[in-house]
Amino acid sequence: MVTMKWVTGAAMLACTSALMACQGGADKAPDTAAGTPTPSGTVTGAPTPTAAAPTTSSAAATDPLLSGKREVTITRVRGSGQPLEISGRLEEGGDTGGRILFVPTPIGGDRYVIRAFGTRDDHPANDDPSCWQVNGLDIEPELTIGAVVCDQDDPIQRFTIIAKGDGTYAIGSETRFLQHLPGNGLVLKELGNAKLNTTFRFTDKGPADRQPIN
Question: What is the DSSP string of the chain?
């Protein structure tokens, strides 16, 4: 009689434990292990996906020409073949004695400042950078680019550079893109419904190791 009670009790205990285990498994969603806790402490089924990094940010991390550590010349694809040059205004092969060596430098997100240097000829002024800036005196819809003292906190010195996947790049500012217009040269212009027809090729010219004037 005692043996029967002990067996019955043990069986009930085993069933109770199994039932609790089954209920615990039923309350647990299949993906709970991969979940993240919410502020209330409840576990969600799957982690909230993070936003994909901007294309240009990824490019800056993997493309040495967009790392801020290389000087480049910039040449318009389907252009004259002459590198871009900046003194008073960014132009194509102007041969005005301006700066033709550029350092696209990432400043966060998908933005860059584009520093400009003169040729390496031991002239100290050529080693002191200036930066591209949208000309604030221009009137929409076509804006030009000039060279000024660098200030990466100035919004009109921030540019987008988009790798096109074929060794070329599109250059823009806000919603405008740098385009070549016959009779007006290089201007920043809204595309509207038009197709982007101006891209640029960057050519590595060595490390960006200039020592600016103190």
Answer: -HHHHHHHHHHHHHHHHHHHHHHHHHHS-TTGGG--B-TTSPBPSSPPPPPPPPHHHHHHHH-GGGTTSEEEEEEETTS-SPBEEESSSEEES--SS-B-EEEEEEEETTEEEEEEE--SSS-GGGGS-EEEEE-TT--TT-B-EEEE---TTSGGG-EEEEE-SSSEEEEEETTEEEEEETTTEEEEEE-TTSPP---EEEEEEEE-------
